[in-house]
Fold these 3 entries.
Entry 1:
Amino acid sequence: MAELNGIRAERFELMARLAQLPSDTVFFTQITMEAAEDPEFLAAMKAAHIHGALVGVEAVTPEGLKDVYKDFNLAGQNLVDRLRKFRRHDIHILGSFIFGLPSDRPHTFAATASVAEQAELTFAQFVMLTPFPGTVDLPAGSRACRMTRVASAVFRSRVAGLSLRPTDPNCSGRIL
């Protein structure tokens, strides 16, 4: 606990120094959404000329959060309420959301847009999950891995005139 308190004190010291800079100085950062639960921290951010932050929301459903190993984050209305706290402290938020998770269904897209709107985000970015062969998102030897190799090979052959020969040793199995 002492280590965490030390890190917190360092953050407050940094923000106190930033607050001494000219008032037309503007900073943006990346932060976890848990910061919204700390009014003292949010006030220090504002005083330090930190006008905005990127928050990796990733997903708005419990299933999606589990897919990205962030099932400790909030979902639904609780997520909306937490994100709104930043705006109540005059901190603009760029919320980053991932589409293409294994649990995504047609209703996921509307739910995500609704959360982004209700949470009063200043900006929202919606990125597509791009799994790479051999990663946790696309395990070697999986059917999805083989299909990704095929799609990649076809793309390379059409765009760059390369052969269809697979080149990624992290993704095993024949191209079928």
Entry 2:
Amino acid sequence: MDVAVEIGLPDAPSRRRLFEVYSRGVPLAVTDADVAAVVERTEGVTASFLKELMRRAVLEALAQDDGPLREVTGAHLSRALDDLLDSTQAVTRALLGVPGDQSGPPAVDRGHDGHGGTAWLTASYGGPMPGVYRATPSFEVD
């Protein structure tokens, strides 16, 4: 049995909240303006993109300083975001579920019929206990 579940793209408040969630445990040294810039520049992206952004910002910080992670700054975030939005990263963005071309301002229509994408949950009978269904998510990107 397949079930299609629409997962919309996060709006600005949701992107801010996702940033907070994905940065838990990361020693941030960012200003409100740094966070606002990330939220503004990531319009039209998925939650997965924001998670990857934080991962890459941490890698930027680690590459800059030898030793353990000390802090992730606004400059690290900006460089990581520049890299993800670069035209050479189109495949990465597609794998992260980001619809369309992110190099310019967001288009009005995002994906098929205005939807950011469709998540398909494939349930299969079986597993460790009879009657237990397992859902396997996969994503379709326009």
Entry 3:
Amino acid sequence: MRGVGKGINFYSLEKEQRLGESLAKRLDRHTKFVPDPSVTDYVNRLGQKLARNSDAQLPFTIKVIDSEDTRVFALSRRLLVRR
């Protein structure tokens, strides 16, 4: 453990989880995800390895967004990668 997140925390884990789930639901309704299982499985395996070796205290859901924009961002418990 690297001790990331040891500073001021404005949200409890429960509040962070609720906020992340709410934002993720809205994102899921308005976002096109990559339908190719070989891509999504690979990115998910890689992301889960990173999460297991991090200070994360909540499980992650990892999705690949079908977009020309190249970015990675995270909501609480969710990592989203744009292809």
